Amino acid sequence: MEQQLRRRDKTVLAVLVVLLAAGGMLAAITYFTQRADNAYTAMARGQYKLARRFYEEEVKTGSPLAMNQLANLHYLGLGTESDHKAAAQLYLDASSKGFAAAQLNLGHMFRQGIGVAQDPVRAFGWYGMSNVNGSPWAEQYMRHTAVEFTLTPGQINSVKESWPTLSDLVKAGL
After folding, report:
1. Are residues 13 and 52 in the same domain?
2. The domain spanning residue 155 has which CATH number?
3. How many separate domains does the chain show?
4. 79, 93 contact by CB (below 8 A)
5. Is-above-0.85 flag for pTM?
6. Same structural domain for residues 141 and 166?
7. Structural domain span for residue 28
8. 126, 127, 148, 151: which is closest to 139 by C-alpha?
9. What is the pLDDT along the chain (174 residues), one digit of tens a residue?
10. Which residues contact 98 (CB under 8 A, 6 or more apart)?
11. Whole-angstrom Cα distance, residue 48 to residue 37?
């Protein structure tokens, strides 16, 4: 009798485990297949095409955050074809509004020569502007760029002379 109870307990436990697993899977399927109502939810659910459409609408309002996020999608090819030139232009547009994250991203593009001509001096300039606008990582990238590309003190000073303000750096374009 004791063995029958143990067997029945194990059976009940196994059924409960299967039901819980099925319920979890159903919840996950429901979550990831529902249409998101904003870009952030769409991104979290991996609905990148939908997120892109939300960001495109927000970009029309002049949102630098939306410009940066849409640029990220273009850069990574999520929800759209990978387009580094479009990403660079969107980063530049967001950067012109003083958005530090976009300035940092544009610095990365110039540093690596992705979507723009490789230019470590301009990368250094964008990292510097990002630093001015509060990026906690910009100073580190400035140091890395100066060392990696062996920027001379003259090159570093030329950044300050050529692009003393954000508008000067933006006017330099891509």
Report:
1. no
2. 1.25.40.10
3. 2
4. no
5. no
6. yes
7. 1-33
8. 127
9. 566 656 776 766 566 666 666 555 444 454 555 779 999 999 999 999 999 999 999 999 999 999 999 999 999 999 999 999 999 999 999 999 999 999 999 999 999 999 999 999 999 999 999 999 999 999 999 999 999 999 999 999 999 999 999 999 999 999
10. 64, 133, 166
11. 13
